Amino acid sequence: MEVNDALVQQLADLARLEFNEQEKTAIRGDLQRMITFVEKLNELDTTHVKPLLHLTADYNVFREDAVKTGITREEGLQNAPAATPEYFEVPKVIKK
């Protein structure tokens, strides 16, 4: 697969990024090297290789479920920059 300016621009548009010409040249080279590497890997015969499902031999390792002491609501809110007696106060972020 050949990486050209149109592909780099399409990827930039999808990612909502803007690049100058020097950055586009560097990205085009990086993408071409990645694609070449993947194409090289596709040349390997993997018919008898089992898929790797987990990176370690550990499977479903869970800690014991234990009750731990927590902090009270008052302790949790005491260092808050703004709070009511029950909740943190945060700035409104949704506008109508």
Automatic annotation (TrEMBL):
<dbReference type="InterPro" id="IPR036113">
    <property type="entry name" value="Asp/Glu-ADT_sf_sub_c"/>
</dbReference>
<comment type="subunit">
    <text>Heterotrimer of A, B and C subunits.</text>
</comment>
<comment type="similarity">
    <text>Belongs to the GatC family.</text>
</comment>
<keyword id="KW-0067">ATP-binding</keyword>
<dbReference type="InterPro" id="IPR003837">
    <property type="entry name" value="GatC"/>
</dbReference>
<dbReference type="Pfam" id="PF02686">
    <property type="entry name" value="GatC"/>
</dbReference>
<protein>
    <recommendedName>
        <fullName>Aspartyl/glutamyl-tRNA(Asn/Gln) amidotransferase subunit C</fullName>
        <ecNumber>6.3.5.-</ecNumber>
    </recommendedName>
</protein>
<keyword id="KW-0436">Ligase</keyword>
<comment type="function">
    <text>Allows the formation of correctly charged Asn-tRNA(Asn) or Gln-tRNA(Gln) through the transamidation of misacylated Asp-tRNA(Asn) or Glu-tRNA(Gln) in organisms which lack either or both of asparaginyl-tRNA or glutaminyl-tRNA synthetases. The reaction takes place in the presence of glutamine and ATP through an activated phospho-Asp-tRNA(Asn) or phospho-Glu-tRNA(Gln).</text>
</comment>
<keyword id="KW-0547">Nucleotide-binding</keyword>
<keyword id="KW-0648">Protein biosynthesis</keyword>
